[in-house]
Amino acid sequence: MTGAHAQTVGKAALLAAEPQLVVSDIAASSEFYTKKLGFTVAFSYGEPPSYVQVFRDGARLNLRHLDTPSVDPALRDREQLLSASITLDDAEPLFLEYQAAGVVFAQPLRSEPWGARTFIVRDPDGNLILFAGRGD
């Protein structure tokens, strides 16, 4: 749409994003996200479950079981391909919470050149989850 017509039609608002992460073991992944990262299971689908949604505050992640990875693990690791990015106000308190819970980090807390403070968690399937908060 261009011109006057674009101004008369309401603009669609994006309300949320729910990344879908491919996992090999739904039970192990659900346990990691709930016990280590503090998420809660919103729902699970199938018997045994093949799809689970977890949430923490406004962040939602969908875990989908596949027997084989959807991305070549060597490529993902070499290129540090992120599966999801989660924005929060301040990354440090969450980093410290996860550190105390024994979470293994793919990248520890650091200040980025663009001003954010970030860290990256690797889940049991190697999915990389970036957590980003405001800078100093």
How would you describe the overall organization of this protein?
The chain has 136 residues and is an alpha/beta fold. The protein has a single domain, classed as 2,3-Dihydroxybiphenyl 1,2-Dioxygenase, domain 1. Helices cover 25% and strands 35% of the residues. Strands 1-4-3-2 form a four-stranded mixed β-sheet, with helices on one face. A four-stranded mixed β-sheet has the order 5-8-7-6, with helices on one face. A hairpin with a 5-residue loop joins β6 (105-111) and β7. The longest helix is centred in the N-terminal third of the chain and has 11 residues, at 26-36. The termini are far apart. The mean pLDDT is 89.
